[in-house]
Amino acid sequence: MKKAAIIGATGFGGCGLLEILARHPEITVTQLFAKNEINIKISDIYPHLSNFYDLEVKSMETIDYSSIDIAFFCTPDQAGMNLIDEFVARNIPVIDYSGDFRFNSMEEYKTYAVNKSMKPEHTAVDAMKHSVYGLCEKNKTAISDATIVGNPGCFAISLILPLLPLSENGIITTETIVCDSKSGVSGAGKNPGAANFYPQRYENINTYREGSHQHLVEAEMNINRKQKSNYKLFFVPQVIPMTRGILSNIYADISTSVKQADITALFEEYYRDAPFVTITDKSPNTSFVRGTNTCLIRPLVDLRTGKLLITSVIDNLMKGQSGNAVQCANILLGLNETTGLDYPSNYP
């Protein structure tokens, strides 16, 4: 049994990880850490975990590195970069939830940081250069050999997975691709701020960071990597009054010679060996993937306009966060990537 430490255990990301690992047959959680809510049992913070965990949340000063096989940094941006050196020195693999290790160059990281209104500074540049982007469907071999894995952003993974088969095969004929994504409020985290206070969120939907969202950087980076193409995404995220889930609609131009059967076959072949990507010809609902690590994708050729619509749905706290992190951990530890994750959605 592999021993896991969770840093940032008291947020939604840590909670989701604890829920998954409570039923994982090969990974057990032995240490929990946070900046706040320390010396409190995790079951007192999240009572639904009371029959599964008796651990107290501790400060990082008490960490026992010698009994950690893998660490999960469920921490905000620019926290993991200040913790990573101690883990690297001891060769402890780390899955980081933030944007600290999603990039291998300062140029890419600076753009990300500026888009998120942060200082474009990184305190662990050498570690960043050796990190692997945690896109299991593309980087499985690299993840298996990694020491640091940067878990993808929730919006980013909902765009990258539906776009990769198209970008790598040159199917899209225009440089700009329009992406429209709607997310539940949990994407803002445990302390979401005034904008998501119930009276201001209920019966309200809004766009934000139009064309400049931080996840745009990693999405463009990944869809353009293989073919060295130059696709640009006009990305408009929205927050809707729903707890969890992301629905992304992607609009693109394709050649009139490309038919629905061609597109469907392309997606099915591309993701033939991807256990958590499902291709459908039905209209996706976020409820179909709630509580799972699945990305459900529907590619649709509109014959009347000649446009291609690709819809993807994920659970932002699962495939968009903790579920994908466990999938990465499974690969990194030499386990079957579906271990602890292969179960149906919570429906309705």
Can you walk through the features of this model?
There is one protein chain. The chain has 348 residues and is an alpha/beta fold. The protein has helices spanning 12-21, 42-45, 84-89, 106-115, 125-129, 136-144, 154-168, 198-201, 215-223, 260-270, 318-332, and strands spanning 2-7, 27-33, 40-41, 56-58, 70-73, 94-96, 132-133, 148-150, 176-183, 206-207, 232-239, 246-253, 277-279, 295-302, 307-314. It has two domains: 2-152 and 319-332, NAD(P)-binding Rossmann-like Domain (Rossmann fold), CATH 3.40.50; 155-315, Dihydrodipicolinate Reductase, domain 2 (2-Layer Sandwich), CATH 3.30.360. The chain is built from eleven helices and 15 strands. It is globular and about 60 Å long. The model has no long low-confidence stretch (mean pLDDT 95).
